[in-house]
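Many introductory courses stop at the sequence. We go one step further.
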Amino acid sequence: DKKKEQRTIFFGPPGAGKGTQAPIIRDEYCLCHLSTGDMLREAVANKTEMGMKAKSVMDAGKLVGDDIVVGIIRDALQSPECSRGFILDGFPRTVPQARMLDSLLAES
């Protein structure tokens, strides 16, 4: 018996309104809003395992890799706030990220 959940992904260039529309949809449908930038900052601030990995990469002036971003998303999807579904804002951005997300969602 698979649970019913809403899975929504917002795509678009910067300034298209993803971050403006996502909270409206989140509130209307009781979903969690997963913005990868916000999630990275929060994971670093909370000193989670993935957050500390991301911090060391960012402190070195590099882009955080897909494995870390997907790990942070994995952690967030396990939270009670995401039990009814989620909105991904700004992720995936590439085909490899989409494949990683697909594998992650197939696990759950």
